[in-house]
Amino acid sequence: MFSLATKHNDPNAKLGWGERIGYGSGGFAFNMINGIIGSFLTIYFTSAVGLNAGVVASIFAISKLLDGVSDLIVGRLVDRTKSKLGKGRSWLIRMCIPFAITTMLLFYVPTNIPQMAQYVYVFLMYNIVNAVCLTGMIVPYYSMISLITGNSYERGFLGNIQQIFQTLGNVLVNSTFVVLLTKFTDSTKTLYTQRAFTMTMLIYCVAMVIVSLFCVFSTKERVTDSVKTTDESNEKKQDSNAMETVKALLTNKYWVFMTIANFIIFFVIIMFSVGTVFYCQYVMKDMGKYSLMSNAISVAQFAIMFATPLFMKKVGKSKVYTVGMAVMALGFLGSGLYTGSNTVIMVLLNALKGGGCGMAGGMALGMVADTVAYGKLKTGIDTVGMGNAGISAAQKVGLGLGTAVFGWVTAAAGYDGALDAQGIAQPEAVTAAINFLYSWLPFILSIIVFVIMLFFYHCESDLKKMQKESN
């Protein structure tokens, strides 16, 4: 069978570029769809379907509670999975097609049923897509970093590679989604028609399945319970129950810090993902600038991640992450103080946000893998599945709550998607709300993460000390 996976089975050896790229492609696949859901689902529900933004936001918020529980369930399933394809890859191949089908249905809300039935449909499909299908892909995918290699540098490198490919997924969506909506729309007044969304989503969902399968067959899982790795030299084989695993995670302070940081970062990400759509539509009053504004973030994020492995090698993952948070905060501070609509200035400020996000995001999964290794040396309990599930849950709750907060605040400010189809401008309060959500709230939250990482996170140094003591 054709495979780009590195031929050796040594978990401590370097990986080849074929496997690194193969792993990264999985992030590209699901992040295309995740990015579309994050950026365009709200405006699809409000403008194409005509649902109330506040009700939709409440659905998102309630659903994320269920989604967080499902992450823990899938994490436990990953820990207990036995398959020839491994603990992670076997789930990718099972879930990619269901994820594609249910996503198509999520963007195909029936229009010939009562509105209350539409809300029920949205609630059910949103939870199936996120709590079942997307969770069934993301948790195993994140776990694969710890399963493919036990080499600390390679874990950090894979985390950086997957972030590069996730960013490429964002760039592709930012550059083509509105273009495809324009091509497939059957209305002369608005891009947001059912036909446009159906045809566009079909293209992305087919691409997601193909790339996911490529990821499965170009990687190899080498780290097993019986393998002794450089980062896990004092390994204890222990079949712990779920409560013991949860306790081990909650007493792992560095895993807790990373969970909090991931929740906040993904809350911030949704602010500028959804926010860019609304900022272009209602502040700059030109959706033609969406690609430029959003790609300023994604391209800067993409570019900086080619340099972050060099920084990581010199100063470590956590310092790169901390500096990234400071840079991202400066970008949000600048857009908050500027409060204007000059395209050049906004592009430069968004590039600053993207550069900081790229520095932090490129280190994140490698840092999570380090916290899992730290916890295993401390307790003897392997929490790779549940540990990554908790991180995934924090990310998705951050995305969901962020989307909900955006909807609640704009709804409270008087936003009404039905006004768009009538050519009526939104109230001035909506513009003020969008400016706050797009700049000042993300700035405050970025500073909180910066402080946590600067003063409380010392996992890398502590992990090295523990490894030396165990040898």
Structure, explained:
It is a single chain. The chain has 471 residues and is mainly α. It has one domain: Up-down Bundle (Growth Hormone, Chain: A), CATH 1.20.1250.20. It contains 16 helices and no strands. It has helices at 17-49, 53-80, 89-106, 115-148, 152-184, 194-216, 242-250, 253-283, 290-304, 308-315, 317-338, 343-379, 384-412, 418-421, 428-456, 459-470. Helix 4 runs antiparallel to helix 13 (384-412), helix 5 (152-184) runs antiparallel to helix 10 and helix 11 (317-338) packs antiparallel against helix 15. Residues 226-239 have low confidence and may be disordered.
Summarize the structure.
The protein has 471 residues and is mainly alpha-helical.
N-to-C CA distance: 39 Å
CATH class: Mainly Alpha
Summarize the helix and strand pattern as letters: HHHHHHHHHHHHHHHH
Structural class: mainly alpha
Tell me roughly what share of residues is in helical segments: over 70%
Poorly predicted regions are 226-239
State the shape. globular
Mean pLDDT, nearest integer?
86
Radius of gyration: 22 Å
| Total strands | 0
- The CATH architecture assignment turns out to be Up-down Bundle
- Main sheet properties: none
Relevant CATH superfamily: MFS general substrate transporter like domains
Number of helices: 16
Topology-level CATH name: Growth Hormone, Chain: A
Oligomer: single chain
Number of domains: 1
Summarize this structure as a short list of keywords or feature phrases.
471 residues, mainly alpha, single chain, 0% strand, Growth Hormone, Chain: A
List the helices and strands and how they pair.
Elements: H1 17-49, H2 53-80, H3 89-106, H4 115-148, H5 152-184, H6 194-216, H7 242-250, H8 253-283, H9 290-304, H10 308-315, H11 317-338, H12 343-379, H13 384-412, H14 418-421, H15 428-456, H16 459-470
Helix pairs in contact: 1-4, 1-5, 1-6, 1-8, 2-4, 2-13, 3-4, 3-6, 4-13, 5-6, 5-9, 5-10, 5-12, 8-12, 8-13, 8-15, 9-12, 10-11, 11-12, 11-15, 12-13, 12-16, 13-15
